[in-house]
Amino acid sequence: MQSGNITDYIKVKKIREGVDAINTLPTIPVTLEKIFSILEDENKSARDLENIIKYDQSLSAKIISVSNSAFYGLRMQITTISRAVVAIGFTEVKNLAISVALMNFFKTKAKFPGFSVDKFWLHSIGVGIVSRMIARISANIDAESLFTCGIVHDIGRVALCAYFPEEFKAILDIKNQENCSMLEAEERYGLKHTLVGRWLAEKWQFPEAFVQTISCHHHPYEQKTFLTAAGIVQLADILVHRTGVGEEPDDSLTWSVSSLKDLELTEDYVSGVEEGLYSLKDVIKETWGSLISV
CB 3.0-4.6 Å disulfide test: which of 122, 130, 190, 252 passes with 246? Predict the structure, then answer.
């Protein structure tokens, strides 16, 4: 084995051991596990979800705040989780609970020039919203689950930021020194966020669709098989990057013709989603921005 390969092996092994230790940290993964258990049990109800959320005051307050935002445009004032379930629906409250719980868990005081955790989450929320929009049109797939797939697609990157600051700084240094993308910097360093994200998702027993999306959203073709959820999130990720939700716009990114064909989408439809996202991004920032930074 060459010395470079040995170094990469040791580096990845160290991260893997760190990921395995994350379950000794705060209890937000337990909350997520309870929420996922509701999704997998047909006998569970909105009341069960409410009972999980209401004992976490921070989680409850943020869900109620988002429910009252302009994003949903409700005329009634939401003051409890049970009213939120009635007003915006069980699935939407579940999606918000997963999103906010993840944001709370990955809070970090570490500061890295060139990377903002707040902007990271705004981008992830944008990807969740656009993934759901696309799924409702393009595929025979649960559109609501695509919202969560979008939220968690880059979870490996924020895990690196929060729990592996030395390695994350090294990746950012490569990005800045070589003027390349974060993904390219991860590849040159020898540790991709998709790999760390997959480890974490498997450890936390995320649904398989989430694991696949986290692992494959940059390459939705696996052994010539097109992974629909990963393909949808890949397209949503490109559109959110292009329109600059949570970051500076980057219109150099483009979607592949083969992915559009497999998703049964037209160029006109995708261009329309992109145009609509330009007007929606301020609403996304206004709705979630203050919650993320708290």
Answer: 122
Measured in whole angstroms, the distance separating CA 253 from the mean position of its chain's CA atoms is 19
Rounded distance, CA 202 to CA 117, Å? 23
How far apart are the two ends of the chain, measured CA to CA in Å? 47
Closest by CA to 288, choosing from 95, 118, 88, 54, is 118
Q: Domain tally for the chain?
A: 1
| Per-residue tokens: 162 | 């929060």
The pLDDT assigned to 9 comes to 66
Question: Average pLDDT, stretch 202-207?
Answer: 82
Please write the tens of the pLDDT for every residue from 155-175: 999 988 888 888 899 999 999
Asked if 206 and 152 touch (Cβ cutoff 8 Å), the reply is: yes
| pLDDT at res. 294 | 52
pTM: 0.87
CATH number for the domain that contains residue 76: 1.10.3210.10
pLDDT tens-place string over residues 25-49: 333 457 777 887 877 777 777 888 8
Query: Among residues 135, 172, 139, 170, which one has the least CA distance to residue 150?
Result: 135
Range of the domain at 254: 3-293
